[in-house]
Amino acid sequence: MSGSSIDALDLAALLCSRVCHDLISPVGAIVNGLEVLAEEKDEETQKFALDLIKKSAGTASAKLQFCRIAFGAAGSAGAQIDTGDAEKISRGFLEDDKTKLAWNLPRAFLAKNRVKLLLNMLLIAAQSIPRGGRLTIDPIGQGDSMGFKVSAVGTNAKIPPTAPLLSGEIGEEALDAHRIQPFYAGLLAKASGLKAEIAMDGEAVVITAQ
To answer: Is the whole model's pTM more than 0.85, yes or no?
Structure first.
């Protein structure tokens, strides 16, 4: 399959697979923690299990909130999304001891596809610094036509191998749950009348949509 055409059912199935893939790990950890609580009577072990459940539940919740906007309908057709809400869920999902966000966007209501595009750009940027680093989000332009620039700086930052799909073109390789996300980002860019690109700028990976 080549070009930008994909069956709507295939797109929906692959995006669902991607979300499930993201949630398997924390949900599985919750199940394991509950099993430990049921089987072990040692106080120290039970405390460890409770900490694991609490941490994993928080991770699962953060991922669900992020995916709800990044991949979901997030309101009816024509709905707008508050960039302040987008910042909150992005920090909850992506920030940790290794990765920090510098969010320089003004707070505004933007068309939902633009905000969904931004969140998907952040996912790709985060993948480019697997050992952590800094993600910086800047506006390109202003108002309803605002575009975005996401810069990722970290140890051995590099463009992910699936990044060419950001063009919204499938290419020769078949799409799967791993490759669908950057392709979906490209579709969002096209739907928003923007062109998404990714390139190295010195030691930084920079993704733009304008």
So the answer is: yes
- Smallest CA-to-CA distance from 40 within 31, 49, 53, 30 is with 49
Radius of gyration for the chain, computed over Cα atoms and rounded to the nearest angstrom? 18
Residue 149 near residue 202, CB atoms below 8 Å: no
Q: What is the pLDDT of residues 87-105, one digit of tens each?
A: 999 999 999 999 999 999 9
Q: Which tokens is 54 given?
A: 């609490």
Q: 7: helix, coil or strand?
A: coil
3-class DSSP assignment, residue 157: coil
Residue (of 94, 122, 115, 143) closest to 206 by Cα position: 122
Q: What digits encode the pLDDT tens for the residues 25-81?
A: 999 999 999 999 998 888 899 999 999 999 999 999 999 999 999 998 765 556 899
Pairing of strands 133-140, 99-103: parallel
> Distance (Å, rounded) from C-alpha 116 to C-alpha 192?
10
Residues in the chain: 210
CATH class of 8-209: alpha beta
Residues 6 or more apart in contact with residue 168 via CB below 8 angstroms: 4, 183, 186, 187, 189, 190, 196
pLDDT tens, residue by residue, 153-188: 999 999 999 988 998 878 767 788 888 999 999 999
| pLDDT at residue 1, as a whole number | 44
Reported as type and span, the H/E element at residue 198 is strand 196-201
